[in-house]
Amino acid sequence: MSNEENENEAKRKEEAEEHINWVKKKVTIWKESYIDTWELDEEALACFDQEIEELIYPYVRRLFDFGILTQPEAQDLFSYAEKELADLCRIAEARRSVGAARIEFYYSSNVPPNKEYHVNIENCLKIIEELKALGIDAKAVDTYAISPKELDEVYQSATASVDKKSIFKSEIEKNSFGTEVTSILFYEKETDKNPSEVFPRKDETGKTVGCEEVLQQILDRVKNL
Question: Which residues lie below 8 Å from residue 210, measured CB to CB, with a gap of 6+?
Fold first, then answer.
C-alpha cells in the first residue's frame, strides 16, 4: 500500500472505531434501561429486539455501504447486539425463575443473628452480589445504617402481607426484625410497596426456612438456567 492508502486506511479505522464504540455504548445503555426500569416481560424483550432491528442494524449496514466499516467489523457489531439481546432474555428468564422483581435482604452489622435461624451473613452478602451480577435486582440493607422509623415501615409492610407460613406474626418481634433475625423480602413488581413473600418462614413440614438457605436456592436456580 502507498503512503496515501495507508493514511486513508488509518483515517477509516479511526472513524470506524468511533462508530463501533458509539453503537456498542448505545445498545448497552438501552439494555441497562430495560433492566432498571422495565418489567422484563415478553413486551419489553420485543421492544428491545425491535430497537436493534430498526435502528442498529440499518445504521451498521449504512456504515458498511459507505466503506466506513469492513465486513468483519459490521458482523462484529451485529453479533454484539445479538449477544446483548440474548443476555437480556437470560436475565428475564432468571427473574421469572426467582418469582419476584426484586429481593431485599435485611441484616445488622452491629447485632449478631440469632443462632436459631442458622445464617451466615457474610455468605448471604456474597450471594446477593452474585445475584446482582446475574441481573437479579437484589440488595442488602444494613439496618444499623437506617433510622428506626425506616426499619419500622419495612417491618409493618412485611407483617401486613405475610401468609400463615410466615413466622413474623407469631415469633418475630419488631425489635428483632433485620437484626437478631435476618429477613428477606420478595417484591412481585418493582413498584410494589409491600412484599409478596417474606423469609424466614415455615415449609410444608413445619421446618423454618431461613435467609441463607433460600438465597442459595435462588442462586443455584439462576445459575442452572
Answer: 117, 118, 119, 182, 199, 200
131 three-class SS: helix
Of 136, 137, 110, 107, the closest CA to residue 124 belongs to 107
- Per-residue pLDDT, 68: 95
Mean pLDDT, range 108-112, rounded to an integer: 92
Contact between 190 and 163 under an 8 Å Cβ cutoff? The reply is no
How far is Cα 66 from Cα 60, in angstroms, rounded to an integer? 10
| pLDDT bracket for residue 168 (50, 70, 90) | low
Q: Which of the two residues, 36 and 9, has the higher pLDDT score?
A: 9
| Dihedral sign from CA coordinates of 116, 121, 127, 133 | positive
